[in-house]
Amino acid sequence: MDVSINKHFLITNEAVDIQEVVDKVSDRNAGAINTFIGTVREMTKGKKTLYLKYDAYIPMAEKKLEQIGDEILKDFPEAKVAITHRIGELAISDIAVVIAVSTPHRNDAFTASRYAIERIKEIVPIWKKEHWDDGEKWMGDQLETKSYPSGKPSEEDLS
Amino acid sequence: MIKILLFAELAEKAGKGEIEMDANTKTIYEIKNSLLKVYPQLTGLQTAMPAINEEYAEEQDEAKSGDTVAFIPPVSGG
After folding, report:
1. Facing residue for A121 by CB, picked from B5, B49, B77
2. How far apart are CA B60 and CA A158, in angstroms?
3. What domain range includes position B45?
4. For A45, which of A85, A104, B3, B26 is 20 to 30 Å away at the CA?
5. Structural domain contains residue B64
6. By CA distance, what is B46's nearest residue in A?
7. Enclosing H/E stretch for A53
């Protein structure tokens, strides 16, 4: 039996089933379920991606996803959070990450799911390798994500 | 024995993702320097975030035998 089905914070090699992630946060007291779906983009600054490869430090990545869930619960105690991130080789338009947050009122669900994706890009040990027709590169400090001039997140980022 | 894990570019440059270091206790700083002596190509260690047993750590933190130390290059998930 696949035990991963009940895990709210999951790194997987399989395609992500959006409904499965949503079902994990469904709640009779929820008035809203917000989902964020991160997909593989073809063009970045004029450069064409052929496919991506994601790698992760799986046990720590799942721990850090769970930490993000705990951080959300501090602000929104009635929230339910589930996050699944896929690793391995992904094609253009494939789903890389699904975040689902349910809360009694919609505003909190929007805020929390936004928080979760930004936080993933700060503290969760997952790496993306871009493959182009003229080469490949492990991506680190991308312009659209937070960069670490000192080489690592500040205490504040990690706390 | 301290287990060292490398990821992404660091693993590629080292040619492996796992290294065992024969030591009882060592600070992250000392581990980095020992690694650089054997693998001078791992310049990315300077911008990697260290972790001990799956929690982020600081340069001066000590790892002891049985611990797992990971060097985490800038992350790019999502």
Report:
1. B77
2. 17
3. 2-72
4. A85
5. yes
6. A151
7. strand A47-56
The structure tokens listed for A107 are 């505003």
Chosen for mutation from B16, B55, B75 (greatest number of chain A CBs closer than 10 Å) is B75
Q: Which amino acid is at A119?
A: R
Superfamily of chain region A3-143: Molybdopterin biosynthesis MoaE subunit (3.90.1170.40)
Asked whether the predicted pLDDT for residue B43 surpasses 80, the reply is yes
pLDDT tens digit string along A102-158?
999 999 999 999 999 999 999 999 999 999 999 999 998 544 444 443 334 555 555
* Contact (Cβ atoms closer than 8 angstroms) between residue A41 and residue A120: no
The CATH number of the domain holding residue B11 is 3.10.20.30
Split into its structural domains, chain B has a count of: 1
What value of ipTM does the predicted structure carry? 0.96
Q: Which residues of B touch A145 (CB under 8 A)?
A: 76, 78
Q: What tens digit of pLDDT does each residue of B8-26 get? A: 999 999 999 999 999 999 9
* B60 part of a folded domain: yes
Task: Tell me the C-alpha distance between A125 and A61, whole Å.
Answer: 5
